[in-house]
Specification:
The structure holds 3 protein chains of 3 kinds.
Chain A lengths: L1 H15 L3 H28 L8 H22 L5 H7 L1 H6 L5 H7 L7 H18 L3 H4 L1 H26 L6 H12 L9 H10 L3 H12 L15 H26 L2
Helix pairs in contact in A: 1-6, 2-3, 2-7, 3-7, 3-9, 3-12, 9-10, 9-12, 9-13, 12-13
Chain B lengths: L16 E3 L9 E3 L33 H18 L2 H28 L8 H18 L8 H7 L2 H5 L5 H31 L8 H24 L8 H14 L11 H9 L7 H8 L8 H33 L3
Chain C lengths: L1 E12 L2 E13 L4 E5 L6 H9 L6 E6 L8 H5 L2 E5 L11 H12 L3 H14 L15 H13 L5 E5 L7 H18 L2 E5 L3 H7 L2 E6 L2 E7 H6 L7 H11 L9
Parallel strand pairs in C: 3-7, 3-8, 5-6, 6-7
Antiparallel strand pairs in C: 1-2, 1-4, 8-9
The chains are: A mainly alpha, B mainly alpha, C alpha/beta.
């Protein structure tokens, strides 16, 4: 499955490479557009030295780590939120006559390599923030772990958003509130948001495990909500649990499509 | 009589979703208007010779033809977009979610710097939900016009030889679109903000409404230029990205322009994008006092940019007509 | 090769239950060439969707190439080729050759047999002139030939075609028919096609299934179909008569 996905993606990348100028422009465009987020953070810190109890470098670290996970998930899998287009256009039928999972096909369909621009932007921000933080080597191992867990969590959110579209074929944009909303939420320290939001993204939709709980560990900070210390190591468990839920929801969506034809 | 059969039996198909980079995902789906049915070059018909397809006598064009034509186009733009209430509802939900998240960020900022930029916390929260409410009507992520599609398909040639000026025609439809999206995507985030955080009532409701219409006109003037530029550039995606970066950042949608530091703030507050979000929000909040010369100054600022952009649009339309009609594309 | 037993499919439309297909039973042997006729909305496409695993039946049982399409969708996909005349299964933005390459990857066809089959299909379907053209720029006839090739690159034993000749001009239509006939004759590929074009039926199908109101109204040879309405000599008149008056099969049911 992974191999098929990689080969499909490679074919689309080769196709995109036929138009190098467009590809370059769109890559730069993605870099600049997501750079706006960092411009906003810069304007905020031109007015204050701390936001929700965190300084500029710490916010950049939280932004960069979540942004990297979000952008990679976006690059690789966010096409699953096109599922309602495929349902309306009838192309989902064409996918169901192929011997490969529809999830792999939808995710790889019209793969857009220029989204790498956003990945690069987030990586640059993270690369600027990390050397200024002096993270002790004993805690730095968490950084790659949290990025991988973040990719799994965001991918699951996208898959859930896709699954919802089997029910809401006419209003697929509903999923944006959760996918892009999740991306926006994790850009800032969760301490800026209300307690009920933080509880919601800790215990229901576990976005807090993308960069907040593991980030607190990396930064050596106390949890403003007072959750126990071991919660910071739960990201892999949260990612696996959400991925499981998302897989079940997606399968239910496909089953529903095949049993109702709509 | 009926010049344009705008009530044809076929409603336009669902709005195609065109991937466009957005600040929260370079491929956020942006609603692009569907193609208009019955957009042939209209035949001039005399009032006593109604077209066979006319189903209603329509208003009397003899006395004030242009006004009623445009009024009807506004209504048509409204109705055409009203078909896609599902997309509008989903958009309203997304705008509301982002409003809540941004509001918390602004609250955190204003708690650490009370009175920043002349706003108090209540103003900042209100500003935040207003800007989310403006996204739909002002089409802050770009698009909203069907011109690029018609340019790509070549149908633009038909539009350009029509006796009614393309720019006014498009503006009328866009005003109808904005009116619908004001109701469908503007009110819900505002109400949600009022319920969740409590927002300020408008300082001067009537002035705010005038200001809102002017803001839509400015937004149209800018988007029309970008859309028509597709006559000259092959791949207009780069142009759209640039337009979106400028609009979202310099309108005040992401952060109030009053907190932009130093020269950047002065520059941002004098550019056309400020007339789309910052100025109407300030009029709503009653915070226009000394910065822009009072209410009159604010309206004058919007009118100035509206005139400049529409003037440029008219010039560009003439150029497009020369290029498309006379040179044949 | 295809076996349907009391196959049925009901939909819920605004609270009401609508039977798109009911009690459909037939058996198609390997190597047969069968045409499926029926007025619009008769249930042909629903049947095709159930045979190919896109839609699961609500009653009855179906096996294709020995497999249950609902449970063994992916295994079945390797053994059948499907063409939808109304819409393409190719990728709109890609050159035809890249679409084929994607299909090769999806079906995990090895390079060597893939190349041989593609070369053969390119010759037979005369595709050499537009292999590098993006699908959206192809004419309908070219696109249909591309779709046919795409459905056969993994060398399926069964070919299911939903209105493969719809909208084609006379020359393209003749080309597609000729190709299908040869494929059936030379490779023994089992072919099931739905159509509104009686020319397809006359020139290709040894056997006709007529579906009306979701039921099997006739199952027999073209000759037997002609004999159902005494006095009518053209197949077109016979079918029109059957559509109008509700088919009352007098042909030998199989």
């Amino acid at each position: 499955m992974v191999r098929t996905y990689a080969l499909l993606v490679w074919t689309w990348t080769r196709a995109a490479a036929q138009y190098p100028l467009s590809f370059a422009l769109m890559t730069v465009g993605g870099f600049v557009v997501s750079g706006l987020d960092i411009a906003v953070i810069w304007v905020i810190f031109a007015n204050t030295s701390s936001l929700g109890g965190f300084g500029l470098t710490e916010v950049m670290f939280l932004y960069g780590s979540a942004g990297l996970a979000f952008a990679i998930a976006d690059l690789l899998f966010s096409n699953v939120d096109r599922i309602s287009e495929h349902i309306r256009a009838g192309t989902l039928d064409a996918m169901l006559i192929r011997p490969v999972s529809p999830f792999v096909q939808v995710a790889a369909d019209r793969f857009m390599p220029h989204r790498i621009g956003r990945v690069a932007q987030a990586a640059v921000v993270l690369g600027i923030a990390l050397p200024r933080l002096d993270v002790p080597a004993g805690r730095a191992w968490m950084i790659p772990v949290m990025v991988v867990c973040g990719i799994v969590i965001f991918t699951s959110v996208w898959a859930l958003g896709g699954a919802v579209q089997f029910l809401l074929t006419d209003a697929p944009e509903v999923a944006n509130a959760f996918t892009y909303g999740g991306g926006m939420l994790t850009q800032y320290p969760l301490s800026v948001y209300g307690d009920h939001i933080v509880r919601g993204v800790t215990f229901i939709l576990p976005l807090a495990f993308v960069n907040w709980q593991p980030g607190l560990y990396v930064l050596g900070r106390d949890d403003p909500l007072g959750l126990p210390h071991w919660v910071r190591f739960l990201s892999p468990a949260a990612a696996v649990a959400l991925a499981l839920v998302a897989a079940l929801a997606w399968r239910a969506g496909i089953r529903r499509y095949r049993s109702t034809g709509s | 009589m009926m010049i344009y059969d705008l009530h044809g039996p076929d409603h336009a198909p669902g709005p195609p979703l065109e991937p466009l980079p957005g600040p929260h995902g370079p491929d956020r789906r942006v609603l692009i208007s569907p193609p208009t049915p019955n957009r042939q070059t209209p035949d001039r018909q005399t009032p006593d010779r109604p077209t066979p397809t006319a189903r209603s006598p329509g208003p009397d064009f003899g006395r004030c033809p242009a006004f009623f034509l445009y009024l009807r186009l506004v209504r048509y733009g409204f109705r055409r977009h009203a078909t896609y209430w599902g997309a509008a509802a989903a958009g309203a939900l997304t705008n509301t979610v982002f409003g809540v998240l941004r509001a918390y960020v602004l609250i955190a900022l204003w708690e650490s710097r009370p009175g920043l930029g002349g706003y108090d916390v209540g103003d900042a929260v209100t500003f935040c939900f207003l800007t989310q409410a403006f996204i739909g009507p002002m089409q802050l992520f770009g698009g909203g016009l069907e011109l690029p599609r018609r340019i790509r398909s070549g149908d633009i040639a038909l539009d350009l030889v029509r006796p009614a000026p393309l720019q006014m025609w498009t503006l009328s439809e866009d005003l109808g679109r904005a009116a619908y999206l004001f109701l469908a995507r503007g009110l819900p985030p505002t109400l949600a903000g009022a319920l969740l955080f409590g927002i300020e009532p408008p300082a001067e409701a009537a002035a705010f409404l005038v200001c809102l219409v002017l803001a839509v006109v400015v937004s149209f003037g800018w988007r029309y230029l970008i859309a028509l530029a597709a006559c000259w550039v092959l791949d207009d995606r780069g142009l759209n990205v640039m337009s979106m970066v400028l609009t979202t950042f310099f309108s005040g949608m992401m952060l109030p322009l009053v907190i932009f530091p130093g020269w950047l703030g002065s520059l941002a507050r004098s550019l056309p994008w400020a007339a789309m979000v910052q100025v109407p929000a300030d009029v709503y909040l009653g915070r226009i006092g000394d910065r822009t010369g009072g209410l009159a100054g604010a309206l004058a600022f919007q009118c100035l940019w509206a005139a400049v952009l529409l003037g440029l649009g008219a010039a560009l339309t003439a150029a497009a007509r020369r290029k498309v009609v006379i040179q044949g594309g | 090769m295809i076996e349907a037993a009391a196959l049925g499919r009901a939909f819920k439309v605004r609270g009401r239950v609508v039977h798109a297909v009911r009690d459909l039973s037939f058996r198609i042997e390997a190597g047969e060439f069968v045409g499926c006729l029926g007025p619009n909305g008769a249930g042909k496409s629903t049947t095709i969707k159930m045979l190919t695993g896109i839609l699961s039946p609500t009653s009855g049982r179906v096996t294709v190439a020995g497999l249950d399409p609902t449970r063994r969708r992916t295994a079945l996909a390797r053994r059948i080729g499907v063409v939808f005349g109304q819409r393409t299964t190719l990728w709109w933005d890609l050159p035809l050759r890249d679409s084929f390459e994607l299909i090769r990857l999806l079906y995990k066809v090895d390079r060597k047999p893939f190349r041989e089959r593609l070369d053969e299909l390119t010759t037979l379907l005369d595709m050499a002139g537009f292999l590098t053209t993006p699908v959206r720029q192809l004419s309908l006839g070219q696109r249909m030939r591309g779709d046919l090739a795409a459905a056969l690159l993994h060398d399926p034993a069964v070919l299911v075609l939903d209105e493969p000749t719809i909208g084609l001009d006379i020359v393209s239509k003749a080309g597609v028919r000729d190709f299908l006939r040869r494929r059936n004759a030379e490779y023994g590929t089992t072919v099931l096609l739905t159509t509104h074009d009686l020319g397809d039926v006359e020139r290709l199908c040894r056997r006709v299934l007529l579906i009306d109101h979701g039921r099997l109204a006739f199952d027999g040879t073209v000759g037997e179909l002609l004999a159902t309405v005494p006095g009518e000599t053209s197949i077109e008149d016979v079918v029109a008569h059957l559509y109008r008056n509700g088919a009352s099969p007098t042909g030998e049911p199989r």
